[in-house]
Write a structure and sequence with these properties.
This protein is of the alpha+beta class and about 190 residues long. Helix content is about 15%, strand content about 15%. Pfam families: SBP_bac_10.
Length: about 190
Amino acid sequence: MKQIGLALHNYYETHDSLPPGATLGKNQTPYHSWQAMILPFLDQLYLYRQIHFNEPWDASVNQEVFKQKIPEYLNPKTKAKISPEGYSLSHYVGNELVLKPNIRMKFEEIQDGSSNTILAIETGENFKPWGDPTALTKPVNIISPKKKSPSTGGYYILLCDGRVHYVSEDIDPSILKALSTPDGGEEVGEY
């Protein structure tokens, strides 16, 4: 997860923004994921150059690319690695409140502070392929004792400042909400 954080920060340095959570094509159809956008910063430039960004991620011209495993997107503890359609999965999702479709957010827009805002979360179920532009959610939809956690009793989160933290599945809901929003003005407190 730390490598994902470094890749996102290197993307930011190159493009002066975070990647969009998803790119949208004709009629606002989701085309590509933030995880596809950061491939060059994960030493996957060759794979990145094979993507036809003017076609959806799962179009026939892109299918072979998105079947390739990206080690940084896989949690070694999680057995599921391939979708039923043969696409390589990701065990991480982006925070849709920061990585928004077709919007490139800047760190200065994160008014709650980059050290107080979740950028990505590890997930223990409902995995999506790394190319799937819908691999975004609110952290409150993932982190819960009612959900299957990938790490015993909790989840790893990537904060916008690049740090990785472990949070309990029993985290106070008000703290989780505060960590999820980039501009809610909530007090984060101890977690």
